[in-house]
Amino acid sequence: MNNNCIVLNNKKIDISKSNPNTIVLDWIRLDRELKGTKEGCAEGDCGACSVLISPVSGGKFKPANSCLLKLGQVSGSEIVTVEGLGNQKNPSSVQKILANLGASQCGFCTPGFVIAITGLLCENNKPTEDEIHDALAGNLCRCTGYRPIMDSVKNIKFKHNFRECKKWDNTDKFQGKQAVFYYPKTLQEAYNISLSHENVKYLSGGTDLNLQSQDTKKKLNYILLNRIPELLRIDEGNNEIQIGSSVTLEETLPLFEKYFSPFAEILRRFGSSQIRSQATIAGNLCTASPIGDAAPSLMALGSSIEIFSNNQKKYLAIEDLFSDYRKTVLNPNDIVTSINIPIPPNDKKFYAWKVSKRYDQDISTVSMAALIGMGENNIIQSCRICFGGLSATTFRSKEIENSFIGIKPDQDHTKILEITEKSIKPLSDLRGSADYRINLALGLIKRLLFKLLNNDIAIEVMKVKIDE
Amino acid sequence: MNEISNLNSVGKSINHDSALRQTTGEAKYIDDILTPKNTYHLALVLSPSPCGKITKINKDKALSLKGVEEILTYKDIPGENKIGPIIHNEPALAENRVAYVGQPIAVVIAKTHDLAQQASKLVNVEIVDDDEPIYDLRKSVKVNSLVMPKMELVKGNSKEKIKNSECYLEGEINIGGQDHFYLEGQIALAIPDEEKQMTIWSSTQHPTEVQHCVSNILGIPQSKVTSKVRRLGGGFGGKESQASIIASITALCSWIIQKPTKLRLTRKDDMLATGKRHDFISIYKVGFKRNGKIEGLEVDLLSRAGNVADLSGPVMTRAMTHIDNCYSLKDVTINGYCCKTNTVSNTAFRGFGGPQGIITIETIIDEISRKLSKPIDEIRLMNVYSTRNGLKTPYQQTVLDSNRYTEVMNEVFKISEYSKRKNKIKLYNEKQELKGSPLRKGLSTTAIKFGISFNKTELNQAGALVHVYTDGSIRLGHGGTEMGQGLFIKVAQVVADVFSVPVGNIELASTTTSEVPNTSATAASSGSDINGMAAYDAAIKIKKRMTRVASEYFNVPVEEVYFQDELIKCRNKSITFSELAEITWSKRVSLSSTGFYKTPKINWNQSTMKGKPFFYFTWGASISEVVIDTLTGECNILQSDIVQDCGSSLNPSIDIGQIEGAFIQGIGWLTCEELYWNSSGKLMTTGPSTYKIPGSRDVPNILNVKLLENSPNIEKTIFRSKAVGEPPLMLAISCWLAIRDAISNYRQDGIVNLNSPATPEEILKAINY
Ligand SMILES: Cc1cc2nc3c(=O)[nH]c(=O)nc-3n(C[C@H](O)[C@H](O)[C@H](O)COP(=O)(O)OP(=O)(O)OC[C@H]3O[C@@H](n4cnc5c(N)ncnc54)[C@H](O)[C@@H]3O)c2cc1C
Ligand code: FES
Ligand code: FES
Hints:
- The complex is a heterodimer.
- By secondary structure, chain A is of the alpha+beta class.
- Chain A has helices at residues 24-31, 71-74, 82-85, 93-100, 110-123, 129-136, 147-155, 187-196, 249-259, 261-268, 273-276, 281-287, 294-300, 398-404, 414-423, 434-453; strands spanning 5-8, 11-14, 50-54, 62-65, 78-80, 173-175, 179-182, 200-203, 220-224, 234-236, 240-244, 304-309, 312-317, 322-324, 327-328, 335-342, 348-355, 366-374, 380-388, 395-396.
- Chain A is globular and about 70 Å long.
- Helix content of chain B is 30%, strand content 24%.
- In chain B, helix 9 packs parallel to helix 10.
- In chain B, the strands form seven sheets. Chain B has an eight-stranded mixed beta sheet with strand order 3-5-1-12-9-10-11-20, with helices on both faces. A five-stranded mixed beta sheet of chain B has the order 7-15-14-13-8.
């Protein structure tokens, strides 16, 4: 069998003697002694550790947070660090323009920006202002105030010479002393490994799991799901979209943009481009956080998941998935295989909003998604409405939904607000007090009612232009 | 002395000296320095309790891990367990008691960073909570829990004036703190030497204080300690005094095991264990005329000093001396209380109390304008420093260039098309109301006057060391540290121009206490002012000697010799700079010199709070427009226009970088950066996932920054430039006032009860208040 290898800055490196549980950032800095990649937070939120990574299954380089990745996840990948892009004698165009336009002050964030910008420009040679923000939301700079960084991206003449990576790795696991990473190629294989081992975890993007502290006394067994071809497919049906559970958020965006653009808008604010290039919807659902961004929209749209369990496929509506705070009804060995989202019919309108302290790359304080059917004379005929951030799990209430039925959006809606207020009991925490969360829920309902009447008016502050 | 030369670099926009090194990842920070093979790694054991007595430290479990070498506590300190920039009695490691959650108690020495971290979590500290913790600032004042006596700045008779004035307002402003969030966390690397010497690389803004603290904690003379830094990955004040704690602990470990050690704080430990910007409560009473003229003002400033004093006294002093901002206050009483609480000791942060002082008076001016239904700019004009209104500050310094207020204000009105936009916003808001839309816009202005110099007079000194080598290359060292602000390039520009050589010929040395001793912190925006002058002094001394040698060589009087374009000329003869360097050496004349500078004309009496603490003032103005959602409290800053007085700027692009960076940091302080403690005194926002600094989209959609033109400093600063590091941070107060304006435009009753930071939650609260 082949050894576990990584291609780092165009050089193949045998990593089979390393610990697969090592954080990639540490491997780069300590093992490879490449010090250009920095640690600013070790939790995926600052971008200083960004590197370009090609998926094991082949494809384009994407920026990712090396502080969130384990060596066992990237075995078989190609990685490019800031050193791989250029040096002082022969800098890349991105490195040159950032230096010339004053985009690097203390410089600690800079290698991360170089990577994120290079990743963006490889995809999109002429990004709009908004696209640049989307791509850089995961990179914090405390010195420059970003203006020179934005100017650099807008003014660069970029020619990229990155090839697309091909799949070359055929290993089926990465064995270490403290941890083993398994690379099953089929569902059945994955399921069997799970059944036959202790202390096992499925791993998709790892953007949730890798942040949780693991008991390192016992040997860890990770089963990587993103090397199973069948989980990487996207099916665009007439009435329904099926997203394989290993499809990353970034890859879902174009399709979501087409069918459920408010959901896409929320996902564009989900983490950062680095996070979205790894994270999956399946991981988001299985983590079962009440402030997770996928569940409210999926639930409002009436989506379901497909599960591989006991050697057979099952289906479960999203609203039946969560049992308690950060708990699902799934068995530990169950694998989510796809997310199936019905396309709303023309007579239904779909809205979704997320409110957070910071617009980008922040966890929601409260979010809301609603699918509304309008009847004749502007009377609401049907309503599915779901909230995040109001209770231990994503929240849906028949009572609230019923209160919408039969009214006109411009009618007196105190009843809806009263019922909503009565049915929620949110907690206070660092993202917002209980009072604020209640007011947000009510505010978002009012926004919804306003929107039902004035669909063309942009009502989100971020969409307001100076000239209006 | 300075002939016109093609090579002149002062006043030009020249890139940061390390720009390309940084973008290619080749620039080395302390964690990037290749360390000796036997380097050990450290991790702190932090207090889990806000107060109480340490009864037991159980190390066994941690020590049983393979690769864990030692766990040290204050008992292992050979010298004194005392650091503290002002009051030198603050412990590096807690002794018998802890005073906040996150206080360093012990330090683990282990083979790797991860192992040290892991072991630090296994050290079990038993603490008996025998005391009631204090978190509340009002309660602190009530029970007299202060880190230093109350401070008082009085001028005239405010009580009487307030009593007799036509109008009266009172209120309270809660101003949140701020974490520095330098991208590079606190770090130090200590390397022991023979003869009990110690070299310490520290990410510090104050290498001399690191040297002093290390010498103190080890009980060895300062001459045995060398403290060094090439660059910091951001400082912002957070590495002024705090870095010394980290460096001292590192040196201690290195000393005990006589091996190199490195302490790099994780982001979480950094945010838990080290100080931040002080949160303040300002309580005010103001009496004023119907035309808006302030008659009397009384302000109580309460700051969260935390467990010890650190720099809280000077921070409060600056807050008190900036309450006036641009306004002539004749009858004023300011009381400053530095509250001792069971939270981490707060410290310097860009602006150093100035922001808290200035936001207080700016909010008061805004309140007066709403009470009188007059435009805020009119109230400002009634009160601004002028020959008519008076030029003496409450602390008795005369404001000499008050005309700059008008200059920056007029310029910012012009570039922002202020009056036109004011009308547009009015129409916009009317339209929204008609539609039933929840959106409202707001627009406001701010002007800032900021005093330059350390309040404490003795700190206003600097040293430099310049060597010219026989090949004509030049090495420059000074006491200032490079933390991204472009200090090194600015000072290099100064030296390059003295010798009339390209700035690239100047080699920049790490800041090192063995080269330039007894320096001040690189802080108070003073870096290029004082280090630029010291370097100038050193360079001029060498230049004079070289000129003398040249005059002998050419056989002409010294007056006829001049330096131009890398040549030394007289009449029609010339030699190159490197030739003259070689000749100077052969004539046995020294090519090396120290330089020194002390800021002139300043004095300060801390007990009466009177004097002339500032060499000069800088001025700036800004106008911002925001839109808020009155249903959710969300806010978007649409446009900001800024005009800043940098005197004759040494390097305009570097200065603009400082202005923009400071402004955005100010926006963070006032909008999204919220520190959240739980009820047991534990900081819950300990990383960027929960503590939100501005991202690229939080920058105003339109941001225009302009330096005030043709405005040399009236004082003789280096090439008549002005300091720039801190003042623009406070220009972000225009965004804060614009948010207040938007809230007021929605409520239409003149009541705006807003706290800072104006998070969506706070904005919504003020809307529904
Ligand atoms: C910096 C940062 C920003 C973030 N921002 C957001 C945000 O804005 N909004 C938000 O909602 N979340 C956010 N998250 C959380 C996280 O990114 C998401 O929850 C993400 O969707 C998780 O997906 P993943 O593929 O990385 O999951 P993983 O970490 O791989 O897995 C998460 C859990 O799900 C299980 N699991 C994964 N896939 C499957 C499967 N197919 N079948 C069964 N079990 C499975 C794993 O065993 C694990 O327990 C953020 C995280 C970080 C680090
Ligand atoms: S170190 Fe901050 S995102 Fe990885
Ligand atoms: S340049 Fe210092 S953090 Fe970006």
